[in-house]
């Protein structure tokens, strides 16, 4: 997909695979939509079948730690083992390793950046949130997402929020009617030339 030529948007689902990942995957398949899943290793371990499906159905995987600690308050050894254990779990489940890192809570600093670089991964945050975890309301999630949707947006959502998954068919239809192609994060950041340890979008106050 060439996101210079067409309107693209990347929906991203954190902390999973969540309980409702199977239903979400069915919906994405039905509408020929791609997504990116920032997986938490402990759930990769307990729900490997979804991870396998994500890869088989053309979605992108990212690493979101093993147990979701704030990396800016963690020792380097903890950060490394949180990332490595998740890489290992994904490899075991689906035969591939994530190439993107989303630190828990989107919290990163120069130490986290250096460790991401060791793993060869850029860090991907989001351009806007759906607020799904706080509203837990189908209409509110749709309204918020449409309000912040722009070409090449990276939208934060969660596949453990039932209302996100319930509302996904209507949301995807509406986005597609507006001309959006639902693509992976790598599709929308293709022109950013991200290097290992880089962060995108760059947060306010980030210095390197
Ligand atoms: Zn998270």
Automatic annotation (TrEMBL):
Pfam families attached to this UniProt entry: Polysacc_deac_1
Alphabetized GO MF terms: hydrolase activity, acting on carbon-nitrogen (but not peptide) bonds; metal ion binding
Keyword Metal-binding: yes
BP GO terms, sorted: carbohydrate metabolic process
Domain NodB homology: 7-183
Alphabetized SUPFAM superfamilies for the sequence: Glycoside hydrolase/deacetylase
Keywords annotated in UniProt: Hydrolase, Metal-binding
Keyword Thylakoid: no
Listed Gene3D superfamilies: Glycoside hydrolase/deacetylase
Gene Ontology cellular-component terms listed: membrane
Protein name: Peptidoglycan/xylan/chitin deacetylase (PgdA/CDA1 family)
Organism: Nonomuraea thailandensis
